[in-house]
Design brief:
CATH architecture of the largest domain: 3-Layer(aba) Sandwich
Structural class: alpha/beta
Order of helices and strands: HHHEHEHEEEHHEEEHEHHHEHHEHH
Largest sheet: 5 strands, parallel
Strand content: 5-15%
Strand order of the largest sheet: 2-5-8-1-9
Radius of gyration: 21 Å
Number of domains: 2
Number of strands: 11
Distance between the termini: 20 Å
Number of helices: 15
């Protein structure tokens, strides 16, 4: 036990030292972004856990600005892809181009070959275009013709969608949704934040370039530390209990939820809950994850993996209602 405590103390010191790079990034983001701390934290969690984010919110809430500024501060290449109904998979991943002079095909890589991909209004394109991202998100590689190309490292997809406008939109396939580590709801700013935003936006424009304050090796070192963060067996069982409760609520004293849930979360939910809990502990400069870390990110990891039934929709119940009940009833270690 003494040996484990010593290792945790040493890991804690390393985490404190490496987390300074996130503070530098936060300082840069604060010069461009007002509020939205929870959203920015989720972006950092996705980066540390090597995951992808789906951001949902009405237009004008700085979703694109957050992603663009984040990529610049982290010194990562950035590509914004505007999804439209007439888009083709080749517009994302690239295609083979014929060279008549040399009489052969050669690959022309698409915008997905970057560190940070902003899939803007991803639900504006049909499933065949959305599915072009599946291989990239899951295996961090893209196949063009007969050749498979590795993507840049680090690589993350941050997609946005508008929850209000439904005309000309397509629902994301379940397989696509499940690839996103978290679905984050971007909310309106507070009164004071709105006042500050208004004053800042109408002041004299400042065209200074966002300075890169983090290097790739710092990100890789932080990820290695996240992998070493300790998670007790009881916390791991708590994660599995939460996920199992979305599938079999009656086993956890939630019989009323059984007809309300069409299907529960996949095993990816357990994996992502564990990884995101470790990353959240890193943000708190802790060498171990706690049940509170799990509960903090549970909504973001589970909300897009729990499908309400028709009966639940008729009663205006959402996935967040189920998750809240599950968090209240599943015993915390």
């Amino acid at each position: 036990m003494m040996r484990q405590e010593t290792e945790l103390e040493a890991l804690g010191r390393e985490i404190v030292e490496e987390s300074v790079m996130l503070e530098r990034a936060r300082e840069v983001l604060s010069t461009r972004i007002i509020g939205q701390k929870a959203v920015i934290d989720r972006v950092f969690i996705a980066l540390l856990a090597n995951g992808h984010l789906l951001l949902e919110g009405v237009p004008g809430l700085a979703k694109t600005l957050i992603v663009r500024t984040f990529a610049a501060a982290m010194n990562m290449t950035f590509r914004r892809i505007q999804f439209t109904p007439d888009m083709l998979p080749a517009d994302l991943i690239g295609t083979m181009i014929y060279n008549p002079k040399e009489m052969e095909f050669y690959p022309r890589k698409g915008p997905v070959f970057a560190n940070v991909i902003l899939a803007d209004e991803i639900n504006r394109s049909p499933a065949k275009v959305q599915s072009a991202l599946l291989e990239a998100m899951q295996e961090q590689q893209v196949t063009i013709g007969e050749v498979t190309y590795p993507l840049n490292e680090p690589f993350m997809v941050l997609a946005t969608q508008n929850p209000v406008e439904h005309e000309g939109t397509y629902m994301l396939p379940e397989a696509q949704l499940d690839r996103f580590m978290m679905k984050v709801m971007v909310d309106y700013p507070t009164y004071d934040e709105e006042l500050e935003i208004m004053q800042w936006a109408t002041a004299a424009p400042v065209h200074n370039v966002v300075p890169p304050v983090v290097q790739a090796e710092e990100i890789f070192r932080a990820r290695r530390l996240v992998d070493r963060i300790y998670v007790d067996q009881r916390v791991q069982r708590y994660i599995v209990d939460l996920v199992m409760a979305t599938r079999y609520p009656d086993r956890y004293g939630l019989e009323t939820l059984a007809p309300m849930i069409e299907y529960g979360a996949s095993p990816r939910a357990s994996i992502f809950l564990l990884l995101a809990s470790k990353a959240h502990a890193f943000l708190q400069s802790r060498p171990y994850a706690t049940p509170e870390d799990v509960k903090t990110i549970a909504y973001d990891v589970l909300r897009h993996r729990v499908r309400p039934s028709y009966e639940a929709e008729a009663e205006n119940m959402k996935a967040e209602d189920f998750i809240r009940s599950i968090l209240e009833h599943v015993q915390v270690p």
